[in-house]
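User: Hi! I'm working on a homework problem where we have to compare a predicted structure to a textbook description. Could you give me the structure for the chain below?
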Amino acid sequence: MLEIFKNMFDIKLTRLHQIILFGTFLFVSFYFLISIIFTLNNIILDIKKENEITISRIEFLSSIKDQEIISRSNFSSNFVSSLNTSALDKNLKIDRSLPLSDGEISIWINESNFVDLFNWLLEVNNNNVEITKMNIRRVSGDSVSAQLTFKS
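Assistant: Happy to help. Predicted structure tokens:
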């Protein structure tokens, strides 16, 4: 068995074959190295993009605190009409509303901009209106649909 193993490595290559073999090894090694570098570079670019998006979201959320909140007197004693009016001010269209028991109302909003919906929910919440249930789903891009239940 040792003799067979010796014979396997006892191959004599000419100088030309050695150069070709070494050149092929260098080429394949160089190809793998370049592939790894490009893959890592793409991963780094993706991470940078994700970080930029995260930073912009954090900046957006921190800017909301700095914005002047509309006074609570905007919400009149008529709860439903106040919700409708404030939704229209934020470019939201309430497709359906359903009064529930205990002063709650369920509202459906279809295909609205998420940022507009988010700002409206902040305004509603800052006017002592409790959001008891919330179901928001992405429709496409920045567009969302929502089913919300409020309690005054």
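For your comparison, note the following. Residues 61 and 68 are 14 Å apart (CA to CA). The first helix runs from residue 2 to 8. Good luck with the assignment!
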